[in-house]
Amino acid sequence: MKLCIEGYVAFLDILGFSRIVAKDSFHERFEAYIGIIRDAVDYPRSSLEFEISSDSVVIYSNGLNLVHLQNLLTAISTISFRLLTEIQIPLRGAVSAGKYWRFKSNDGHLMFSGAPIVDAVEFEKEQLWLGIMITPKMLENIPHTQELFAILNDFNNSTYAELNAQMPWPLLVWRQENIPFRYRNSLNERSFAGIVIIPSSPNCKSPEELICSLETYIKKLKELKIMAPTPEAQQKYSATMFCLENIRKKWNRIISNSK
């Protein structure tokens, strides 16, 4: 069966999966890994679907309205937070959107094809940190996302009231000027400006709750950085912590100024 779908697509790479498989507790951790993804995608009746292939996850929506986008970003935020803080699994990924095809053969094999799948995979592979970003093609091809995220361009000068009027988006996404990037097919590192998804605990509803989530997440990153096998791997943890610390500090400042 072949379906043509318009929707949002997230491609997530489970980093260090080979080391997870090698552990004695692999079965328990794998079950927890599946459960975290299923809980985030299914709740609360988000109309999302997902497919897992060993060290990668594809989450997709059937539709391009803002409810579909909010559900997808909320699920990704929760998955990123829970996988790292509960079972020490970091993620890297990208989100795109557009028309794609979903094939299901008679024997049950599933395959995805289409421009947003390729776009998300390419941007996931180029990043040199532990983060998830929205691709430029998604912003270009889905006009309402440009308007939605415009407030992020001037976050430093936004008031608490202005950001509160934009909820829940300021709790889900953040404009990051220096995403560490590998220049196409090169070992040289470059930086890339884009919009990233903020990891947070399930049902995070306020800036104060987001700050607590970030503190927990950053603490776990610091613990795991010590166990990273190479200087390059450690640098990915450092780059991620730098971004999340900026988010935490700016939210703290905005909350303080609102009192």
Task: Describe the protein in words.
The termini are far apart. This protein has one domain: Alpha-Beta Plaits (2-Layer Sandwich), CATH 3.30.70.1230. 49% of the residues lie in helices and 25% in strands. The chain has 259 residues and is α+β, with helices and mostly antiparallel strands.
Features:
49% helix; globular; 259 residues; eight-stranded mixed sheet; alpha+beta; Alpha-Beta Plaits; 10 helices
Query: Which structural category fits the helices and strands?
Result: alpha+beta
Beginning-to-end CA distance, first to last residue: 57 Å
How many β-strand stretches? Answer: 8
What is the mean predicted local confidence, pLDDT? Answer: 87
Q: Taking Cα atoms only, what radius of gyration do you get, to the nearest Å? A: 18 Å
- Our count of helices gives 10
Topology as a string of helices (H) and strands (E): EHHEEHEEHEHHHHEEHH
Spatial shape:
globular
The third-level CATH topology is: Alpha-Beta Plaits
| Known CATH architecture | 2-Layer Sandwich
CATH class categorisation: Alpha Beta
Low-confidence stretches: none
Structure at a glance:
This protein has helices spanning 17-22, 26-42, 66-87, 115-126, 136-141, 143-148, 160-165, 169-172, 207-225, 231-258; strands spanning 2-14, 48-53, 56-61, 91-104, 110-113, 132-134, 173-182, 189-197. The chain is of the alpha+beta class and 259 residues long. 35% of the residues are buried.
Helix and strand layout, with pairings?
Elements: E1 2-14, H1 17-22, H2 26-42, E2 48-53, E3 56-61, H3 66-87, E4 91-104, E5 110-113, H4 115-126, E6 132-134, H5 136-141, H6 143-148, H7 160-165, H8 169-172, E7 173-182, E8 189-197, H9 207-225, H10 231-258
Parallel strand pairs: 4-6
Antiparallel strand pairs: 1-3, 1-4, 2-3, 4-5, 6-8, 7-8
